[in-house]
Amino acid sequence: MKKIIYIFLYYIILFINSNLLSDEKNNILKVGLLAPLSGEYKELGNSLVYSLQLALDEINDDKIFIIPRDSGLNNKEMLNNAIKDIRSQGANIVIGPLSNDEFEEVRKYNDMTFISPSNILPEFSDNIISIGISLESQLLAINNFLKKQKKNKTVIMFPNNQFTNLIEKKIKKLKLNNFRIFKYNPDPQVLTGEIEILTNYSQRKKNLELRKKIFEDKEDEQSIKELEKLEQLYTLGNVNFDSVIIIDFGNNLKSVLTSLIYTDVNEKKVLFTTVNQWFDKSIFVENTIKTLYYPSIDYKEFQKYNKKYFKKFNSYPSEITILTYDALGLIYYAWKQNRTLSSTSDFVFKNKIKGKIGTFSFKDKYVRQELNIYKIENNQFIKF
Q: Phi/psi at 366 (nearest 5 deg)?
C-alpha cells in the first residue's frame, strides 16, 4: 500500500513540476532577430540590435529575451543557419528578414512567425507580416489629401525600371479614380523631353509667342501693358492636370521636379506630392519646388527616437530601425494579449495599435499605417 502511495505522490510531483516548467516557459518571450551583423551591412545590423535595446528599455519587462543572429543580406546559407539557431533557442517569433527577396526561404519555417520591416507586401503572407511603410498606405493617404484639396485630375509619375510592374499592380489593386499613369525614363536627358510632351510645353510656348505678336506693333497704353505682362511669362495656357504624385527618390526625384518647373508648370495651380522621403534633408538641396507634400510617419516621434538613440549610443540610427523598434512593441502587445504566439493569426487585432511610426491597423490580415501629410517649405518639414 505504501508503495502505491509513493508512486502516486511521485506522479503528482512530476505533474506539478511539469506545469511549473510549462508556466515558466509561457511567461518568457523569446524573440529572434535576423540582421547582417558582419560584412558590408554590419553597421545596419548593429543599429537594429541597438533599436531593440531601446525598445527593451521602454517596455521594461525582464521576461523578454532577444536572440540576435547574423543572417547576412540575401545570403541563403547564413539566413537558414540563423533561423535554425534561433529556433533551437526556443524562439518561434522573429523580427526579420529585412528584404522581401528572402521571404521564400523563411516560408519554409511554417512553425515560426516573422515580422519584417519590408514594405512590399502589406497582406499577411503565410507566416510573414510586413510592417514597412507600404506604397498602398502612402497612396491612400495622398488620395485622401488630394480629395480634401479638391484635386481630381492627378498624374501618377514613376520611372520605367525594375519596380514598374510592381507599382502598376499596386495602383490597379487600390482602384484609385481620376488618376492617370505617366512612366518616364530615369535618364535626365530623356526625361525632360518626355515631360515636355506631358505638359504640352511646345504648344504652350507657341501660344505665348502668338499672343505677344498681337500686341507687338500696337502703341496704345493697354496693349503696351498687356505685352509687358506677357514678357514675364514663359508659356501661355494651363496643363491638363491639377496635381502630381511622383513615386521616386533622391536625385531622380529632383530631376523630375526640375523638369516640371522647366516646362512652366504653375505651382499655384498644380499640387506637387511624392511618397515617403523619411525626412531626408538632402531634398532641400537643389529642389526647385517651393512646396512639396508627402505622407510619412509621425515626425515628432521620429525626432524623439533619434535623440534617444543618439543619447544612448552616440550615433544616429538608420531609418528602418524605428520599424524594428515598433516590431518588438507589437510582438510584446500580442504576447500580453494571448500569452502565446503560434501564428500570424495572433496579430489580428480589432483595435488599432499605436506605435512610434504612427497608428497601425491589422484588419483582415492586412497591415495599414495611418500616415500624416507633411510639406517641405522653406527648408522645413511641416505637418499639414
A: -135, 125
Q: Are 256 and 184 in contact (CB under 8 A)?
A: yes
pLDDT on residue 245: 97
Count CA atoms within 13 Å of residue 86 on its CB side.
Answer: 33
Q: Where are the domains of the chain?
A: 27-132+299-361, 136-297+374-383
Alpha carbon 9 to its chain centroid, in Å, reads: 59
* CATH of span 136-297+374-383: 3.40.50.2300
Overall residue count recorded for the chain in this entry: 384
For 20, 56, 68, 96, the CA distances from 64, given in Å and listed in that order, are: 18, 8, 13, 17
CA angle 123, 128, 132 (to 5 degrees): 60
Mean pLDDT of the chain: 88
User: Tens digit of pLDDT for each residue in 299-346?
Assistant: 999 999 999 999 999 999 999 999 999 999 999 999 998 878 889 999
Q: Residue 25 has what pLDDT? A: 52
CB 95 within 8 A of CB 64: no
| Alpha helices in 297-353, H assignment, sequence order | 299-313, 321-338
Domains 27-132+299-361 and 136-297+374-383 in one fold = yes
Does domain 27-132+299-361 sit in CATH 3.40.50.2300?
A: yes
Percent of the chain with pLDDT over 70: 93
SS percent in the chain: helix, strand, coil, step 5: 50, 20, 35
| Beta carbons of 82 and 71 less than 8 angstroms apart | yes
* Mean pLDDT, range 1-28, rounded to an integer: 42
CB atoms within 10 A of CB 295: 27
Three-class secondary structure of residue 257 per DSSP = helix
Q: Is it the case that residue 363 has pLDDT exceeding 90?
A: no
